[in-house]
Each structure stands twice: as C-alpha cells, then as structure tokens.
Amino acid sequence: MNEVGDRRQPDVQALVGRGLTGQMTSATGLAGGGITAHPTTAHPTTGTIDLGDPQPIRQIADVDTLRLIADPTRLAILRVLMSGARLTPPIMSAKELAATLHEPQTKLYRHLKQLEEAQLIQVAETRLVSGIIEARYRTGQLVIAMSPEMLSDPATRTAATEGMAAVFNDFRDELIGHILAGRSRPTEETAIMTAASARIPARRAGELRDRLNAVIAEFTQDPQAEGVESHLLIAWYEAGR
C-alpha cells in the first residue's frame, strides 16, 4: 500500500455502544455475546449459495475474535463487504477485494479463511474461472458490536483498546485517502472535524449522550441506493467517574 489512505489500520465501526455497521460508523460499539469460530464448511462446485439475510448484529465478547477483526487487513475486508449491506450486501472475490484495497491478491487468502472460519464472512457464490473454483464472499452481519465490559475487565482491556485503535485508525486513513485522491473536498458544508473537552453537569452529559445515540440510530436507518455517500465517526467518553 502506497497511500496513507490505503493503510487499513485497526476502525470496527464503533467500539462501545452501537457497533460497527455497514457504514463503519465510528467508535460506538462492539457489544455483548461473543463469536464462536467454526470450521469452514464445504461449498458446492459452482453456483450461488442460499445464505438468507446477514445477521442484524454480531456481538463480540471474546478476546480471540476481537483480535481477529483488529488486524488492519481483515478490518478493511469487513468494511468493504459491510458497506451498503443494509441495501444489498456486496459479494466479492479475493481478486475483487484485492483491487479495491490495493493489496496483493495472495495476501488476502489467509485473512479471508480466518474471517470465514469465524463466520464474520460467508461464501455466497462459487464459479469456475480459468479452470479454478473461485469463491466470492459476503458479510455475515450488518453490525459488529463489542461489549463495553471488555474495557472495564482487566483481562480483556488491552484487546479492547486495540480494537478501539483499529476503528479510529481505519477511519482516519480512509478519510485521508479520500482527500488525497480528490474524492472528498472537506468544506463547512461537507465535513465536521472537531475535537473538544469540557466539564459539564452530569445531567447535561447524559442528555448529550442520548442525543448522540439518536444521531447514530438515525444515520444507520433507511439507507438509500441513491444519495450522498456519508461517513460518521462519533466518540464520547467521560473521565473521572
């Protein structure tokens, strides 16, 4: 990868609260549950596989899976396959993903296998290409969420913070990549970039949190095939409690 925007460092759309959606909406949520890895299932020789709809949310509460998705390459694969998944989940081969991510195709095979074994992605189609069976992949979920308890538990805190770093770094690199490539020209009308700290009453802090969560919920609902491609990163935390 040559451009800053192509260095897919460890964003899962969000880390504490709402989750990593198809839009990879920021640091709001990886929540609850946990993912169990299963062996890769056998696939038909060629054809489309009936998978049904992706799960609405995949909840992560185990360190192994969190570390799996914190890898910059695997995170980038998930982001691409989850993008627009609320409308029509993208179905892509290793070759197509490599072209999108500006990565060598051979580099992706191991990562795709690991994501499939964890059921984070699924083989949705197989086809014969130059005498070789080619698999094409689809996301297994619309949202990935992490339990906030992973940040408070000393046994999982390090892995959880690494996951948070992954979310922030990937969003940063994607933004810089769009700007350098001329796909985004931030102005007062097209971008908000603000960092701030303030001491405010506890009740007001709660009201602001609720409003931010409402914005996140509104952002991820009612996706449209036509419209402005928008990206959102919201981070809020309170210190001293």
Explain what the structure shows.
- With 241 residues, this protein is α+β, with helices and mostly antiparallel strands.
- The protein has 7 helices and 6 strands, in the order E-E-H-H-E-H-H-E-E-E-H-H-H.
- A 4-stranded antiparallel beta sheet has the order 1-4-5-3. Strands 2-6 form a two-stranded parallel ribbon.
- The chain starts with 46 loop residues before the first strand and ends in a 21-residue tail after the last helix.
Please tag this protein with its features.
Arc Repressor Mutant, subunit A, 241 residues, two-stranded parallel sheet, globular, disordered N terminus, alpha+beta, 7 helices, 11% strand
CATH architect. name? Orthogonal Bundle
Unreliable residue stretches: 1-41
Name the structural class. alpha+beta
What is the CATH class designation? Mainly Alpha
Total discrete domains: 1
**Shape designation:** globular
How do the strands of the widest beta sheet line up side by side?
1-4-5-3
N-to-C SSE string, H for helix and E for strand? EEHHEHHEEEHHH
Question: What's the short version?
Answer:
The chain is α+β, with helices and mostly antiparallel strands.
How is this fold's topology laid out?
Layout: E1 47-48, E2 58-60, H1 63-70, H2 72-82, E3 92-93, H3 94-101, H4 105-117, E4 121-129, E5 132-139, E6 144-146, H5 149-152, H6 157-180, H7 202-220
Parallel strand pairs: 2-6
Antiparallel strand pairs: 1-4, 3-5, 4-5
